[in-house]
Amino acid sequence: MWRRVASVSHLFSHSKSTKFNQGASTFKIWETFTSESEIPTPSKGSPFITFVLGGPGSGKGTQCAKIVEAFGFTHVSAGDLLRREIASGSAYGSVILSTIREGKIVPSQVTVELIQKEMESNDNYKFLIDGFPRSEENRKAFEQTIGAEPDVVLFFDCPEQEMVKRVLNRNQGRVDDNIDTIKKRLEIFDELNWPVINYYSQRGKLHKINAVGTVDEIFEKVRPIFAPLRYILLFCYPVCSICCH
Ligand SMILES: Nc1ncnc2c1ncn2[C@@H]1O[C@H](COP(=O)(O)OP(=O)(O)O)[C@@H](O)[C@H]1O
Ligand SMILES: O=c1ccn([C@@H]2O[C@H](COP(=O)(O)OP(=O)(O)O)[C@@H](O)[C@H]2O)c(=O)[nH]1
Ligand SMILES: [Mg+2]
């Protein structure tokens, strides 16, 4: 396995020091390494991006923690970024708070800017973007601003009744974890999220995962999506110390 990676280490010889140029070289290795499998080929020069979609309470955040642990992604939760923005007392804070309380979607420009800053300030090249995009408008804004598409899209498919039960038991003191807001969030999810899911399904990027079961049972359905990439994901990002000089 290592020999195979090492055999393409010359691809790094012209790496420049910028984050995304290094990324481009790393992805050449990735393409070589995975050429015989069905793993998606990431765009050159882009980070490896996974969007994590699903209704409220479907278990996105819980599964992201497991994916981070197993595969070394950086977890970027759009909801957490928005809540952090509220807590920081920023100019956008009160608008974000009322939007979340009403179960609506924060303007794309605000969310994408927060995601972009988070990605840019992180040395990692592999990101789980959790709870975003929630609409086609979100999706287009991300692609235009970041200039990248996701490599993988996970969709945690969970019955409404189960999602409501989980959210009402979440117990994290969130302003939106109440029955009225959940009903609105589910309506908005139905109206705006399905077009995004269908878009990525048509592009062959969507992995639909039945989100009913224990956390570990669900993770065993997620693991095979990333497992073929585990050596690259764990050891060669951004540049490993063994083969990437
Ligand atoms: N498979 C599961 N079975 C039961 N409860 C779960 C499961 N996955 C997550 N939970 C719980 O449900 C709640 C919502 O999970 P979370 O990961 O926050 O979902 P999301 O980010 O999609 O809203 C949390 O309290 C979490 O501990
Ligand atoms: O890209 C996003 C992500 C979140 N939100 C807002 O933040 C809330 C909570 O999002 P989060 O992803 O934390 O909720 P979860 O689905 O995990 O329960 C959502 O209902 C929206 O109001 C948003 O507007 N845009
Ligand atoms: Mg969440």
Automatic annotation (TrEMBL):
Gene Ontology terms describing biological process: 'de novo' pyrimidine nucleobase biosynthetic process; CDP biosynthetic process; UDP biosynthetic process
Major subcellular site: cytoplasm
EC class name: transferase
Highest taxon of source: Eukaryota
Swiss-Prot/TrEMBL keywords: ATP-binding, Cytoplasm, Kinase, Nucleotide-binding, Nucleus, Pyrimidine biosynthesis, Transferase
Subcellular location: Cytoplasm; Nucleus
Record's cofactor remark: Binds 1 Mg(2+) ion per monomer.
Residues at which ATP binds: G57, S58, G59, K60, G61, T62, R170, G213
Catalyzed reactions per annotation: dCMP + ATP = dCDP + ADP; UMP + ATP = UDP + ADP; CMP + ATP = CDP + ADP
A single MF term (Gene Ontology): dCMP kinase activity
GO cellular component: cytoplasm; mitochondrion; nucleus
Function: Catalyzes the phosphorylation of pyrimidine nucleoside monophosphates at the expense of ATP. Plays an important role in de novo pyrimidine nucleotide biosynthesis. Has preference for UMP and CMP as phosphate acceptors.
Subunit structure as annotated in this protein's UniProt entry: Monomer.
Name of protein: UMP-CMP kinase
Species this protein is from: Prunus persica
Lineage of source species: Eukaryota, Viridiplantae, Streptophyta, Embryophyta, Tracheophyta
